[in-house]
Amino acid sequence: MAPRPIIIDTDPGQDDAIAILLALASPELDVLGITAVAGNVPLALTEQNARKVCELAGRAETNVFAGCARPMLRPLVTAENVHGRTGLDGPDLPAPTMPLRDRHAVDWLVETLMAAPDGEITLCPIGPLTNIATAIVREPRILPKIREIVLMGGGFFEGGNTTPTAEFNIYVDPHAAHVVIDSGVKLTMMPLDVTHRALMRHDWIERIDRLGTPVGKAAAAMMSFYERFDMEKYGEAGGPLHDPCVIAYLLRPELFQGKDCNVVVETGSELTMGMTVVDWWDVTDRPANCRVMNRIDADGFFGLILERLGRL
Length: 312
Known about the structure:
Elements: E1 4-10, H1 14-24, E2 29-36, H2 43-56, E3 64-66, H3 80-83, H4 105-114, E4 121-125, H5 130-138, E5 146-152, H6 168-172, H7 174-181, E6 187-190, H8 192-195, E7 199-200, H9 202-209, H10 214-234, E8 239-240, H11 244-251, E9 256-261, E10 263-265, E11 276-278, E12 290-296, H12 298-309
Parallel strand pairs: 1-2, 1-4, 2-3, 4-5, 5-6, 6-12
Antiparallel strand pairs: 7-8, 9-12, 10-11
């Protein structure tokens, strides 16, 4: 079977980095390109971090594009308190030498999708949705070209991790999230409700470290740095590993469970800005527009990551 063509839209971020490594290590996926967006840290760092991760994986030929430097309507909110000053604090990764492609990410997204057959390309946004929404607004004809959008973002029963009601990726650009979720494209969402069930335990991070490879050492250092914030915040024995859930779902969908629901993004209230309102119990007459995941086989998930990182 031919590998599934995907585009990763990202704001690395340690968990983004693990997602990128997982994708690049998986022959079932054809990573057409990586588009960087402002989010965890500003764009100048996210595009650089994406290239650092590609070089770490030995995939310097990967196309990396810089996209939107700020949300569609609101000021940029970043998360250095979680990810560190560089966004990839933990390992000491060298500055990338591979080139940043000279096309704007949104231009490249539109051109690539318009050139593809209908239902061909899967979009994997694991940061704020600014690039994806801007591409949709600029050229709505790309919508039939998209096979599926699998995104990390949102939360409902778990609440939010940035405000009481909003998860970071959606909160940073709620208007972009509204555009994407209201697009009519087949949509699968990995919210906090599922990612908080995938906690990085110390023994698992140590197994990554014991791979003994540059990838294993760097990945373990990233996760050790990153998990400390959520361990303190949630009082758990490990921090959640959010973004790799998107890639793991493409590789092993049987690891996840969820249901089709209507999802609406709040864009009007400052109190609940960026909340993903999920009609889990079908109490409205709004049609389902999203597959919302809320269960994960955590052992299978972490086993997959360990096995794939061992290939790099």
